[in-house]
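Re: [ENG-882] Designed sequences occasionally contain unexpected residues at chain ends

Forwarding the minimal case from QA. Structure tokens:
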């Protein structure tokens, strides 16, 4: 008796998926709910679990194949009576972790988390060459990056003083490597071209003095952490200030559909987050109804799940406005590109202590440049500028957000 393993139902508007990684091979014993294969779509990676215990049969779709919903991937053959104890033993392994390294398989190879496994695969690194610093020697992302840094430092040593470096980077070599673009990267490229070719994008700039926000964080950080078990960051203030500005300028929260303009009566704020596969934009639904702590917790969760590839399609779909923080990477100033079909995006940048004039005196203040890119088809320059000024005023005087002024 065998059980089919098929491509699960794909999210709406996703036509197909690509077989990314098989974690089991024909003949391997599998346990129910164990991840068999990763399928990559335009936005998320879907895990396909085993529907039953048994032995993996022939694979119908190999890595790199494009598959559609309900297409056959493989079959699981019911284990014979003699094989049953092996399945039971596999299910009992977690209880014996104290006597066996739970982070290595039967062959002594390290067991990697999905996020680290994808990173190692994309970089073409042999995981056995990496020294893990996690529990039981588990390999962490930081270990992968440290390994890369070590390899890079070897390459940078002159060949005359380091023979290994001479082998890795021979003098005069012009190496090239051709790798297929991931579906996410291809989708990002497609949407960026779509935004630039269909929208009339302009960008307006301003600067904001974040001293008031700094003072609030310094004064209330300990109490905030004690009450909510999370630090009070900057992003929650920016989300709140953006929502107040969107309420004053509804066109910035609108989108174009054909010859119609859709004005959204809700505030779903996309927050750009980096991941090993590329930039993703999970959405804070009804962000106007969230507290500062709720926003901080959700953004932290988004960051963690973006890293391990567990964000769902629903969390990445939609949004009425986007905030992108290039400042975390050291960006001083940039012109963010719209996230179609949205009509506006706010770009945050790094905070620099700069001298400014304040009440007739020169003082040092934490300053940030802000950028607001907008679709000029439905947003006039006056509205775009005033929208950004409204954000600036709310951040420089946070009481405005409490008083709704």
């Amino acid at each position: 008796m065998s059980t089919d393993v098929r491509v699960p139902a794909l999210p709406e508007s996703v036509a197909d998926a690509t077989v990314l990684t098989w974690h089991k091979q024909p003949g391997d014993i599998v346990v129910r709910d164990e991840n068999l294969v990763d399928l990559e779509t335009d936005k998320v990676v879907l895990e396909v679990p085993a529907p039953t215990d048994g032995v993996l049969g022939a694979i119908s779709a190999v890595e790199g194949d494009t598959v559609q919903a309900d297409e056959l991937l493989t079959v699981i053959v019911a284990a014979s009576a003699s094989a049953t104890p092996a399945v039971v033993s596999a299910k009992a392994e977690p209880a014996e972790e104290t006597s066996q390294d739970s982070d290595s398989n039967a062959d002594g190879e390290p067991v990697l988390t999905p996020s680290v496994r994808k990173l190692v695969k994309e970089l073409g690194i042999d995981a056995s060459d990496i020294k893990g610093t996690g529990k039981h020697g588990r390999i962490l992302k930081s270990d992968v990056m440290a390994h890369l840094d070590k390899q890079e430092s070897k390459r940078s040593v002159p060949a005359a003083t380091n023979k290994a470096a001479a082998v890795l980077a021979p003098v005069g070599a012009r190496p090239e490597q051709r790798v297929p673009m991931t579906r996410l990267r291809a989708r990002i490229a497609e949407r960026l071209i779509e935004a630039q070719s269909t929208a009339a994008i302009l960008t307006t700039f301003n600067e904001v003095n974040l001293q008031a926000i700094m003072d609030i964080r310094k004064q209330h950080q300990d109490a905030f952490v004690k009450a909510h078990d999370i630090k009070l960051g900057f992003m929650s203030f920016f989300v709140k200030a953006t929502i107040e500005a969107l309420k004053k300028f509804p066109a910035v929260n609108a989108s174009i559909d054909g010859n119609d303009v859709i004005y959204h009566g809700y505030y779903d704020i996309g927050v750009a987050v980096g991941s090993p596969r590329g930039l993703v934009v999970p959405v804070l639904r009804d962000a106007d109804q969230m507290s500062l702590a709720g926003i901080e917790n959700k953004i932290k969760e988004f960051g963690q799940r973006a890293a391990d590839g567990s964000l769902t399609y629903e969390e990445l779909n939609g949004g009425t406005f986007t905030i992108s923080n290039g400042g975390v990477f050291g960006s001083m100033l940039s012109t963010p590109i719209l996230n179609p079909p949205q009509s506006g995006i706010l770009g945050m940048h790094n905070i620099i202590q700069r001298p400014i004039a304040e009440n007739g005196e020169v003082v040092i203040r934490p300053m940030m440049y802000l950028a607001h890119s907008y679709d000029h088809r439905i947003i006039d320059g006056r509205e775009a500028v005033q929208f950004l000024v409204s954000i600036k005023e709310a951040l420089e005087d946070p009481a405005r957000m409490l008083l709704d002024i």
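QA comment: On inspection the terminal residues look reasonable. The chain has a mean pLDDT of 83. Proposing we downgrade this to a documentation issue.
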